[in-house]
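Board notes (copied after class):
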Amino acid sequence: MKSLAAAGAAATIAVTIVVATAGGKAPDARTLKLTELPGGSFGVVDNPPKTTHSRQGQPRAFSVGDIVAFSVPVADDKRRPQGRVAVQCVVTRPGVPQSAELACTGAFRLRLGQLSVSAAIVGEPSTLNAVVTGGTGAYAGARGTLRSVTGKNGRTTDTIRLLR
């Protein structure tokens, strides 16, 4: 599950927000670039039935109901703090970390408001597609998509496209 944590922790996030308009008008576009910083938290709740763990303390397999959670600070491209992203995933189909199925929800808590996201994943994907399910503040009523790509360097780039 270390890659799943890397997808949220120690990652670079480029958030692209595109607001679509009707009637052939040009879209009103705005881009936010965020980087996930060190100093986050990560944990696994191994609910019954319990499993054996690796030397690093990670479960060798997951059972239905196990939970993976993490939270990391985020900053803009000049490394100025902008908020945090928090994610929790519940195992819905058991298996080793590379094949278990999880239902994940998360929230970007930013200076101008919050964005909520949701995804169903299998294993530890290097590319994750999710849905933006809502927002508050400047992001009130947000809907759209999130594409998260973890590079070979361990950094993750997220692109969020919001439609209003």
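Comment from the instructor: The chain has one domain: 2-163. The domain at 2-163 is CATH 2.40.480 (AOC barrel-like).
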